[in-house]
Amino acid sequence: MMLSIVSKMTGLIYYKSEHMDRYAKERERMCKEQLVNRGISDKKVLDVMLKVPRHNFVTEENLIRAYGDMALEIDCDQTISQPYMVAIMTELLELKETDRVLEIGTGSGYQAAVLSELAKEVYTIERIEHLAKGAMEKFEQAGKTNIFVKVSDGTLGLADYAPYDKIIITAAAPAVPPPLIEQLSSDGGILVAPVGDRYSHKIVKLRKIGNKTEETHHLQCIFVPLIGAYGFNP
Ligand code: SAM
User: Fold this and answer.
1) Nearest CA to ligand 1 atom 18
2) Which residue ranges make up each domain of the chain?
3) Is the Cβ atom of 107 under 6 angstroms away from ligand 1?
């Protein structure tokens, strides 16, 4: 009897480690084929993409596609972004370990988990309570203590904890919401966001020095809409 319990347990441990190996290999392939081959070169970003378990942030039906080259549906008709999009937006933020970051659009929590490995604190806002709760549970399970989740309209930012060194919007905005520009550090703060019309947008990087901002435009992309006071209508 004892023996069978031991062998069952051993079987379970083996099964788990086999699984972990498979996902680690998938992450390695994802980094090489989807990120390095497309020009992601920041070693710190690549190391984090190698480390953070994207499969923990997708739905059960999508486990098999967790490391695929695509955005995937999560609950409430929302999406977890494509790995390449997460990597390039993270690279554009030029994160430092002392940075305080504001993310608009928590979604699955994957982007926040990536940011939390490279910055001091991450404040993340989600308008859908169900998604915010799901992400919080994942952060707790992973022992994350530097991510703070709030349910509200992220287009208004989170003035109580401003200014932020970096701000990232992970839903498509018609224009960068003015409250977010106000809450960005004037000492070289960087904001990265998809900006454009509802179905076609470009990644914009905005740098704020004093009360001046300079903007650069990057790749074309498709995101779900930012809904709110300074976003699109529902
Ligand atoms: N960063 C997410 C991840 O890693 O899974 C992906 C975000 S998903 C592409 C966009 C998210 O933005 C959705 O969860 C959506 O509910 C949220 N969203 C849209 N408008 C918002 C707003 N005004 N404030 C906060 N969240 C918003």
Assistant:
1) 105
2) 18-221
3) yes
